[in-house]
Amino acid sequence: MAGAPTVSLPELRSLLASGRARLFDVRSREEAAAGTIPGALNIPVSELESALQMEPAAFQALYSAEKPKLEDEHLIFFCQMGKRGLQAMQLARSLGYTGARNYAGAYREWLEKKG
């Protein structure tokens, strides 16, 4: 069963350490280029709906990463402050990604407490 729609920093650290999370930075390319959480795939929220509906090969070609599966458990979306990450999580869930979650603390919290 998928976890709660939001994920805390301690839970995120645990999921990342165990390799059980896929992280998606939904900020703009410029924001992500200035710094992101290690291992995150940048898909701006404006592209997310079309990205999640692509054929796996097209997704792989465009983002150089495997397309998430509908049944993946920990698909964690984040932005700078939390709003776009929430939008992204809601969008992914509406498309059937039941394991979509939002890291509500966002990159701001990550920088303050981890970086």
UniProtKB/TrEMBL annotation:
GO terms for cellular component: cytoplasmic ribonucleoprotein granule; cytosol. It comes from the Eukaryota. Pfam families: Rhodanese (PF00581). InterPro entries: Rhodanese-like_dom, Rhodanese-like_dom_sf, TSTD1_mml. PROSITE patterns: RHODANESE_3. GO terms for molecular function: thiosulfate-thiol sulfurtransferase activity. The active site is at residue 79. One of its GO terms (biological process) is sulfide oxidation, using sulfide:quinone oxidoreductase. Residues 17-115 form the Rhodanese domain. This is Thiosulfate sulfurtransferase like domain containing 1. It comes from Rhinopithecus bieti. The gene is TSTD1.
